[in-house]
């Protein structure tokens, strides 16, 4: 079997605990097969970055590089998170494009190629991840790298008219034709990519999943919905009941039920709309007053980007307003926590919650939705309220599916979830859990790598 080389902006080093689905999923995938993980070290420097840092942990080797402070600003905060992130989440109104910033993004991709190329062997399988590194495969090919290269996009791909609004979209997205396989989270993302290649990318769709790029190079494309380590999360959640943090939470809630939301503090997650929907639930369902406490965990994310800082202020105001108008001396309806909670503790929190609320306006997959289901007690599972705009909704069709813009609909779904009889909860949970057992993180990795091998 060839060596697997995973390349991503964010590398989950052995002691890393920060929230984020990509890091958690890739850690699980690499642990199983072993290999090399290459990416940004998490550090910025004032002068020319030195050689890559290496580290070994069991069967996984890490090679990470520092970035110049200014390069990192342009590549990560700038083009990745002020330009591409809003564009790929259908938010053309928030896209901030600047030629100099795009040049910084390309410079960092070129640096990745320069530092990675000498570490590669001819029979390696290289698997590049996400929107931070779209040009990388083409830059590696320019350096004579001939091994198999796959690319996986963790975020959605919007309609081709939106993609085409980005200056330089042709150069950027046609670089993906240097790959042997390009993977997306859902069939819809794949279809939109094929539309883009046909309509704006000067390519041809020879058959579904087989594309000819503008330079005549053929490559495969497919949908590979990412997943979780289902069995591990189920057993971790069962064991977590004895963790002090989980016990304390349960004690502090009793005898009330809990609804939980867990999201990086990101505007794509629909948090302001969710807070408004919860407020609507409190006013539309007075019979349930005081029965449900909503815990929102929202670790701060990308705090150097204005849109994220503004969101934080907006949510603080909104949380204060909800509690100001609805709290009782012995009950706070909304608990809003901006800290990162370790993953193992989180699984115990999920299990303690009768309702899981996942209402992004757009989300590539949303692993929290899958984790919430996997963490439930089979004898008394909770109910998932899930946005139709999360990739996960394509698979978890036994959740209460809602449109996050429809505040009354979300409010009513929370009320139904909180009062759903146990037999109906078990029935819905079973169907979703069966799917997650069959389609776990190992299956995702296997399916993608088999398709890459065959490409
Ligand atoms: O690395 P950060 O800037 O802190 O952001 C965290 C990650 O956010 C995004 O995650 C996506 O990947 C998940 C796993 O496939 C998926 O479930 C989720 O819907 C996506 O939003 C981003 O794409 C990653 O690159 C970041 O590491
Ligand atoms: O305090 C937190 C909040 C989130 N997460 C994890 O971060 C990931 C978030 O992934 P998701 O796909 O839902 O969204 P992303 O943040 O990648 O957009 C999930 O595995 C969560 O369990 C965590 O470990 N601690």
TrEMBL record:
<dbReference type="GO" id="GO:0005992">
    <property type="term" value="P:trehalose biosynthetic process"/>
</dbReference>
<comment type="pathway">
    <text>Glycan biosynthesis; trehalose biosynthesis.</text>
</comment>
<comment type="subunit">
    <text>Homotetramer.</text>
</comment>
<dbReference type="InterPro" id="IPR001830">
    <property type="entry name" value="Glyco_trans_20"/>
</dbReference>
<comment type="similarity">
    <text>Belongs to the glycosyltransferase 20 family.</text>
</comment>
<protein>
    <recommendedName>
        <fullName>Trehalose-6-phosphate synthase</fullName>
        <ecNumber>2.4.1.15</ecNumber>
    </recommendedName>
</protein>
<dbReference type="GO" id="GO:0003825">
    <property type="term" value="F:alpha,alpha-trehalose-phosphate synthase (UDP-forming) activity"/>
</dbReference>
<comment type="function">
    <text>Probably involved in the osmoprotection via the biosynthesis of trehalose. Catalyzes the transfer of glucose from UDP-alpha-D-glucose (UDP-Glc) to D-glucose 6-phosphate (Glc-6-P) to form trehalose-6-phosphate. Acts with retention of the anomeric configuration of the UDP-sugar donor.</text>
</comment>
<dbReference type="Pfam" id="PF00982">
    <property type="entry name" value="Glyco_transf_20"/>
</dbReference>
<keyword id="KW-0328">Glycosyltransferase</keyword>
<dbReference type="InterPro" id="IPR012766">
    <property type="entry name" value="Trehalose_OtsA"/>
</dbReference>
<keyword id="KW-0808">Transferase</keyword>
